[in-house]
Amino acid sequence: MEVLIAANPASAAAHAASAVLEGLLRVKRRDTVLGLATGSSPLGLYAELGAAVARGDIDFSTTLGFALDEYIGISPSHRQSYRQTLINDACSVIGLPESNLNVPDGMGATRAAITAAADAYDAKIAAVGGIDVQILGIGSNGHVGFNEPGSSLASRTRIMRLANQTRADNARFFDGIEHVPTHCVTQGLGTLREARRLVLIATGSAKAAAVAAAIEGPLSASCPASVLQLHPDVVICLDEAAAAGLLNREYYDASALGFPVTV
Ligand code: GLP
Fold first, then answer.
1. Which pTM was predicted?
2. How far apart are CA 37 and CA 72, in angstroms?
């Protein structure tokens, strides 16, 4: 696990973009597969990736995108659906064609239909060869995707009820908390763990406790993001405020300086 602590959110976004590019540019065999996250946290990262495209460092025109999650019961064309959010915040910024974007289907008429679509989503990720780099944010309660506390560390893409704290956190995007959906479909922790590289970005003091629990707390379903501890290639990019709860800070800073070539 690599923990990079930057002076400010812009610099954290630059670190995260470098980690994403490194993970994608080493994929030689086919078009790349990028896992996309919604939320405010990755916006600077998407802007950095857009700048990399403009410089000619990378091209997402043949990249396949897979969203982490989607609300149940709001149509894909709704302005707050995660499909629309990702089209506006990610695809249009980095030049990933809308037709290459895959999002879990939360519009099935029955639980069984949504579950079948969730199973098909995992199967599609596997069929394209797996996700090369998965971008992640973190919820203030430690969720990743929409895997709320209590989620099995082996879970697959499935229906989840949103925690009250998550609905309150996301109420700012809706006309009041009563309009925030109560359920979602999210990639499971077992699903997202299969991505070849995970890049998590978190900024601001509201994330400090969740970040500390994820990195330094016990591996536990109570902090779903602690599942990152099981992954062999994780880069966590923080600003000072999000890193404020970490106890092992000196070690992360020293490690970020790299391997001494004289040894
Ligand atoms: C949302 C999303 C997560 C996201 C998190 C943090 O509910 N499902 O994927 O990482 O909450 O959002 P933000 O970055 O806006 O704080």
1. 0.96
2. 17
Work out the percent of the chain whose per-residue pLDDT is above 70: 99
Catalytic residue among 48, 132, 148, 239: 148
Residue with tokens 């002076």: 7
> Do the beta carbons of residue 191 and residue 155 sit within 8 Å?
yes
Tokens of residue 239, six digits: 């600003």
What is the rounded distance in angstroms from the CA atom of residue 260 to the CA atom of residue 222? Answer: 38
**pLDDT of 262 strictly over 80:** no
Query: What is the CB < 6 Å shell around ligand 1?
Result: 37-41, 68-69, 137-139, 145-146, 166, 170
Half-sphere exposure of 9 (CA within 13 A, CB side): 15
Percent of the chain residues topping a pLDDT of 90: 95
Q: In angstroms, what CA-CA distances link 216 with 64, 209, 212, 256?
A: 33, 10, 6, 17
What's 34's DSSP letter? E
CA of 137 to the centre of ligand 1 (A): 6
Task: Looking at the CA of residue 162, tell me the nearest atom of ligand 1.
Answer: 7
CA dihedral 100→65→194→184, nearest 10 degrees, is: -100
Is residue 157 within 8 A of residue 191, CB to CB? The reply is yes
SS3 66: strand
> How do strand 69-71 and strand 183-186 relate by DSSP bridges?
antiparallel
| Among protein residues, the one whose CA lies closest to atom 13 of ligand 1 | 39
Which secondary-structure segment (H or E) carries 19?
helix 9-25
Q: How far is the CA of 263 from the centre of ligand 1 (A)?
A: 41
Strands (E), the chain: 2-6, 33-36, 64-67, 69-71, 101-102, 133-136, 158-161, 183-186, 197-202, 234-239
